[in-house]
Design a protein that fits this description.
With about 400 residues, the protein is an alpha+beta fold. The protein has 18 helices and 13 strands. The N and C termini lie far apart (about 65 Å). The chain binds protoporphyrin IX containing FE.
Length: about 400
Amino acid sequence: MVIHASELDAPVVPLFENGDRQVRRAVMREIAALGPVARTDIGFAAVQYESVVKVLRDKRWHSAVGFAAQFAGVTDEEFLSRRRISILSAEGDTHVRLRRLVAPAFSPRSADRLRPFMREVVNGLLEPHTASGTVEFVSAVCEPYPIPIICELLGAPKSDWQMFSGWATDVLRVFNGTLVEDLPVIMKAQDELGEYVRGLIAERRDKPADDLLTDLIVAEESGDRLTTDELVMMVEAVIVGGTDTTRNQLGLCLAVFLDHPDQWAMLADDPGLAPRAVEETMRYFGAVNGTIRYASEDIEMDGVLYPKGTFMSTSLGTANFDDSVFPGAGTFDITREPVGSPHMSFGSGIHYCLGASLARAELQEALTILPRRMPGIARAGATVMKPATTAIFGPAAMALSFDPGH
Ligand code: HEM
């Protein structure tokens, strides 16, 4: 028997206006224990590992990420039309085509090329603080870390990093919850960045180099290539998708290790554990807690009919705590044996994080260096977390002390 979604007897996810993520996680785990799907203020939410995977792998559920602006009350037509071609929200053949063209440029091998540079950046950012053994870790390391790497990846010259960083900050205001006020600044940054990237593209067309932009320019499948507009869109997607996520995830990694100093020491002794430590911290505390889809047609799923247009959130953070997939899910353990089912913090299905190899490499390199150079880390003040509703979540400030001189 199939019932209409409006008749579904399911718990309601409360609005977590404030409050910390630990509280939110506990509430969500209780809700997930009651069934695969819950109700939200705008529709429904998949809350168990299996239902989250099911929604994200079902192509009838389309990305609603592009609706973020409308949700925030933006009506500016020009701004709304800019978002339509993003890979983050494209669907069907358009998405398949984009993904096919760009995927090779985001391979693990491409990310590996940057590992020596990543090490240089991490060491350089930490260096000024090792003598004193104190650091405000978010502004000193997390925030700057991804910018030179994205610039190096794209092939933007070092002299332009500061400029690039400013654009990235402004473009990323889309996630600040103040979108309507910030719209002029965001659009200005998009325009300037667009113009800058067009310049870089023209240079690379004349003189190809060993970088992502050149890879994207020459990317070709069956005679098909990315247009200049699509190249600009991809660069913006790399900035939007790859900057704030990585810096918040690194901050969360440190926040988790502060509560588990024994595992930080273990990692310092055995840096070979870094890849597992990255997977476990991402499972335990992912910077992207959820994503959202809408029904592109009437969808029947597990005996429930969700009418076309229904919004379905997917709680990645709750799926990561599903005991049936991750035994003893509440325990943080960097020696956890990898299970067949990976954590959900990079998503799943066709929109699975395009930059996952790069993000993994960045975090692995950081977690290889930091435990050795910052032994004995401890909080040197309150850790200030971003508001719990922030789409890309992490610490806003985190003062640390550690044994100096390493
Ligand atoms: C730890 C860091 C990161 C996390 C937690 C993360 C998380 C995610 C998640 C959850 C999605 C899926 C969104 C959805 O299904 O709606 C996604 C997609 C995406 N990410 Fe990441 N990401 C990270 C780093 C990066 C990096 C470094 C880049 C770029 C270099 C990047 C670029 C993208 C792009 C372009 C997409 C859209 C892919 C598509 O729609 O086909 N991400 N990311």
